[in-house]
């Protein structure tokens, strides 16, 4: 059985560590780590021995205040070191503990702790990697002042970096050198970082608004300096934005970003020394796409914003993870909205929430943004904690307004700077700053599942009154079942849901324009059912409910096709214009699924007309918004809609329906797509700016539809363009063409893929794209090709980016093939999980999440999935990460 950790068992630490002085000596055969811990009995603690975490550490020496400890003074097992006494005498209230251990970073394939990557040694400590470097109480409520001396071969590892300020450095003998760093701020050990590597550096500086000069540096693999300019400018933009929007300044003299090719996650906010996956740093027009550029902006901002929301104020325990992650995602979303298009940013966040978070909430790993138990914390870096966490913060923002929110942030920092706190502390600051009672709102923190919001409108022309009845419901999820099994209390009662509402009149204007800003009023739904009445509405309006997607809920609102078309055309809220289009498209596509995806009788003429209008609009006004509107709901989203209606998910029918609709639109609107393609041709050199990005998105979308034309047209008119575009000067256009070709059963596909690989084989991130377009291909035999690619020299199972690009892309972004009726997709996933789990349990567990929804499929598929899940579960020495995911899936 897996050990479960419970929030209710939280107790303050018995001992505090005020300082940690580390000495890390990197040698070819091993690394030696010495730690000097200044320990102090916690007056507010429960008393007792000093418990230190340690994993895969070979203890060499242990002494207390200079006295070597003897066997009877301590106990040491696989993961803890307990210090009870000094030579039999009780521990004093203050002392220094000295430890010396050896670790083996060269054989660390988990990429947690200190590990070797191509250009040197890198650390990753969140959540529990520090215990793989040195003995320490590895919990975020222990905040210590760190100093760190690093020693290594000078030639191979010229850069020696850690948090804070470089205070001294020198040489040692002929070939070695050392550097000593001191971090002036106390921090939890998960924010510690160390790098010893051979890297190139781009340097710059930033002057904060109070006049502090901060040296900025981006370190990358040698030869890649021409790919880090965008990251640097994103960093500077983030720094000014946080000053302007939240009054938050950089607090250190150095801010360093180090890019590494082997990394489990996106990036890590270590104090003053962020470590990034290369994917979120490196970009050049010919190697990175528009969305890569945007993601770099977002992730650089995210990690930078953590300096205040996460580092200055951190989490008391890992159950509070959303305290820093939900808030920081909210902040990076706001940054993107302010620096790119706010409507497009919001639409993309909502789409992502539906693709990743809603299924999570409906599946066996369902959990609230603040869970109360876990077996492996690494499994809780989820869409729920991050993205739904951000939605919860956004709802507070919506309820109390921008100014009160800002006061709430100020108060939060006034109260908690330098502390490790809880989600409750954050909500309390927001409540106190705004005066709004958030007690009912707090339920969002402890409830799993996606609520249903039911709406019903009624217009009384005689008295010009519109009445909207809203009701909410939230069915128990797998999480409540787990609570019940553990004998824990289950929260009940309605949630406090902000429902942003507009009433759109027949002429397209907003009925509430005079009373409310932007014609949008925010309703507070706090009861199970509530009625809202609006007087002086001159004509029957179409209600625009949940403007800006004001709450993460499923909306059940039976609006007619004509009403949705009205919103698509006139809603002043861009997000809901998009949403109306998505609802209409889902309706059509699900009718297609019901019709078996055959013929086209289920495609209403009005839908074709709506697409036509959006295209027209996009060419005249906002191309980026039009491109978003023309992306049909994802197969995963349609699958969830089926599951939500109690139907069995039919991945084949969903795929067919979507494809039929694409073919139909391509045939009916070919001239329009051609016109768009012509009109949106590039007129200036590539730049990843909003205007160009939108034009490229719409133009490539048009090209994608043209590629769905009949064979003659495809061969004669589209194929030459696709092949030419494979040689475009920017990766956005190249990958759009290559991705389209990868879906076509034509000889040119092979040529284009081979040429692309030949050209880019030495550029790791571009090779990832090559793997990904093949993994997500809709052609038959894709599972087999993915398997074959795993044997290709380009693939490396030890590198997370490669596994994500090939295997996770196949499992998570190619539902029709992953859920193939022959069970080959499931077998492939299980093979990878089993091969990977001992090497890198975190990444293996992420792949295992692909099985989450297995019970929603037909019995044939269920039996294939069960076979594979049981095969994984039955393997010996299964990593805890994978065991938790698979255990929950099998329930
Ligand atoms: N804290 C990191 C972030 O949100 C994510 C992360 C978690 C990175 C665990 C590495 C390990 O930006
Ligand atoms: Zn984060």
TrEMBL record:
Keywords of this entry: Aminopeptidase, Hydrolase, Metal-binding, Metalloprotease, Protease, Zinc
Zinc listed as a keyword: yes
EC numbers: 3.4.11.2
Species lineage: Bacteria, Pseudomonadati, Pseudomonadota, Betaproteobacteria, Nitrosomonadales
Species of provenance: Denitratisoma oestradiolicum
Designated gene of the protein: pepN
Residue ranges of domain Peptidase M1 membrane alanine aminopeptidase in the record: 231-444
Family label: Belongs to the peptidase M1 family.
Protein's name according to its UniProt entry: Aminopeptidase N
Cofactor section: Zn(2+)
Annotated TM spans: none
Reaction equations catalysed: Release of an N-terminal amino acid, Xaa-|-Yaa- from a peptide, amide or arylamide. Xaa is preferably Ala, but may be most amino acids including Pro (slow action). When a terminal hydrophobic residue is followed by a prolyl residue, the two may be released as an intact Xaa-Pro dipeptide
Domain Aminopeptidase N-like N-terminal positions: 21-191
Domain Peptidase M1 alanyl aminopeptidase Ig-like fold span(s) in chain numbering: 449-557
GO BP field: proteolysis
InterPro entries: Aminopeptidase_N-like_N, Aminopeptidase_N-like_N_sf, PepN_Ig-like_sf, Peptidase_M1, Peptidase_M1_dom, Peptidase_M1_pepN, Peptidase_M1_pepN_C, Peptidase_M1_pepN_C_sf
Keyword Hydrolase: yes
Molecular-function annotations in GO: alanyl aminopeptidase activity; metallopeptidase activity; zinc ion binding
Peptidase M1 alanyl aminopeptidase C-terminal domain location: 561-890
């Amino acid at each position: 059985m897996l050990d479960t950790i419970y929030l209710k068992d939280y107790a303050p630490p018995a001992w505090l560590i005020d300082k940690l002085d580390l000495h890390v000596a990197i040698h070819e055969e091993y690394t030696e780590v010495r730690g000097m811990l200044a320990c102090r009995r916690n007056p507010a603690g429960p008393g007792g021995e000093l418990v230190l975490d340690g994993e895969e550490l070979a203890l060499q020496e242990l002494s207390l205040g200079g006295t070597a400890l003897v066997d009877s003074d301590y106990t040491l097992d696989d993961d803890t070191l307990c210090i009870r006494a000094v030579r039999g005498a009780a521990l004093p209230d203050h002392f220094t503990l000295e430890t010396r251990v050896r670790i083996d970073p060269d054989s660390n394939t988990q990429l947690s702790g200190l590990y070797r990557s191509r250009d040197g040694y890198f650390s990753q400590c969140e959540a529990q990697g520090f215990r793989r470097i040195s003995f320490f109480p590895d919990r975020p409520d222990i905040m210590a002042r760190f100093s760190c001396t690093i020693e290594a071969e000078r030639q191979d590892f010229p850069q020696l970096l850690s948090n804070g300020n470089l205070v001294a450095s020198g040489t040692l003998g002929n070939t070695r050198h050392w550097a000593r760093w001191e971090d002036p701020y106390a921090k939890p050990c998960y924010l510690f970082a160390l790098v010893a590597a051979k890297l190139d550096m781009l340097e710059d500086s930033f002057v904060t608004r109070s006049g502090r000069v901060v040296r900025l540096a981006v370190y990358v693999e040698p030869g890649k300096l021409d790919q880090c300019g965008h990251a640097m400018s994103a960093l500077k933009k983030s720094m000014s934005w946080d000053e302007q929007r939240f009054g938050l300044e950089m607090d250190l003299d150095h801010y360093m970003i180090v890019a590494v090719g082997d990394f489990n996650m996106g990036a890590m906010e270590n104090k003053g020394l962020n470590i990034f996956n290369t994917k979120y740093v490196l970009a050049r027009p010919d190697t990175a796409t528009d969305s890569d550029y945007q993601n770099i902006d977002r992730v650089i901002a995210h990690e930078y914003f953590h300096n205040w929301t996460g580092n200055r104020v951190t989490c008391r325990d890992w159950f509070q993870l959303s305290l820093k992650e939900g808030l920081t995602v909210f902040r990076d979303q706001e940054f993107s909205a302010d620096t790119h298009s706010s409507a497009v940013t919001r639409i993309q966040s909502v789409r992502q929430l539906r693709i990743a978070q809603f299924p999570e909430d409906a599946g066996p790993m369902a959990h609230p943004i603040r869970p109360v138990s876990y077996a492996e914390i690494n499994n809780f870096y989820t869409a729920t904690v991050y993205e739904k966490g951000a939605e919860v913060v956004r709802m507070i923002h919506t309820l109390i307004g921008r100014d009160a929110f800002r006061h709430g942030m100020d108060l939060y920092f006034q109260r908690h700077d330098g502390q490790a706190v809880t989600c409750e502390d954050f909500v309390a600051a927001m409540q106190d700053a705004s005066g709004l009672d958030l007690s009912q709102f707090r339920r969002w923190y402890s409830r799993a599942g996606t609520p249903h919001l039911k709406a019903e409108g009624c217009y009384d022309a005689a008295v010009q009154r519109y009445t909207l009845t809203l009701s909410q419901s939230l069915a128990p999820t797998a999480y409540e079942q787990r609570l019940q099994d553990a004998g824990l209390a289950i929260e009940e009662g309605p949630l406090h849901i902000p429902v942003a509402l507009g009433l759109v009149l027949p002429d397209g204007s907003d009925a509430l324009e005079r009373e409310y800003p932007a014609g949008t009023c925010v309703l507070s739904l706090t009861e199970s059912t509530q009625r809202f009445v609006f007087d002086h509405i001159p004509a029957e309006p179409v209600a625009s409910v949940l403007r800006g997607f004001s709450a993460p809920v499923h909306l059940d609102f039976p609006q007619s096709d004509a009403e949705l078309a009205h919103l698509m055309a006139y809603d002043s809220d861009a997000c809901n214009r998009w949403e109306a289009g998505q609802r209409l498209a889902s309706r059509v596509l699900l009718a297609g699924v019901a019709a078996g995806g055959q013929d086209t009788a289920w495609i209403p003429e009005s839908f074709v007309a709506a697409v036509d209008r959006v295209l027209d609009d996009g060419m005249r006004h906002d191309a980026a918004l039009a491109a978003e509107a023309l992306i049909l709901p994802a197969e995963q989203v349609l699958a969830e809609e089926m599951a939500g209606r109690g139907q069995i998910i039919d991945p084949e029918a969903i795929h067919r329906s979507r494809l039929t609709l694409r073919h139909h639109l391509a045939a009916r609107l070919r001239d329009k797509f051609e016109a768009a393609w012509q009109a949106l041709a590039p007129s200036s050199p590539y730049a990843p700016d909003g205007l160009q990005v939108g034009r490229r998105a719409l133009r490539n979308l048009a090209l994608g539809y043209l590629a769905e034309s009949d064979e003659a047209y495809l061969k004669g008119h589209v194929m030459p363009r696709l092949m030419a575009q494979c040689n475009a000067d920017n990766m956005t256009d190249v990958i759009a063409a290559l991705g389209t070709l990868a879906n076509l059963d034509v000889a040119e596909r092979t040529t284009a893929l081979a040429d692309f690989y030949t050209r880019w084989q030495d550029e790791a991130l571009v090779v990832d794209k090559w793997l990904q377009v093949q993994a997500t291909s809709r052609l038959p035999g894709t599972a087999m090709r993915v398997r074959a690619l795993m044997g290709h020299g380009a693939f490396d199972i030890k590198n997370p980016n490669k596994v994500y690009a090939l295997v996770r892309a196949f499992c998570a972004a190619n539902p029709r093939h992953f859920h193939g009726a022959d069970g080959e997709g499931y077998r492939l996933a299980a093979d990878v999980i089993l091969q990977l789990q001992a090497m890198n349990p975190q990444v293996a567990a992420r792949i295992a999440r692909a099985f989450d929804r297995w019970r929603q499929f037909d019995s044939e598929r269920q039996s294939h999935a069960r076979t594979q899940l049981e095969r994984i579960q039955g393997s010996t020495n299964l990593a805890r990460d994978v065991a938790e995911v698979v255990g929950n899936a099998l329930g």
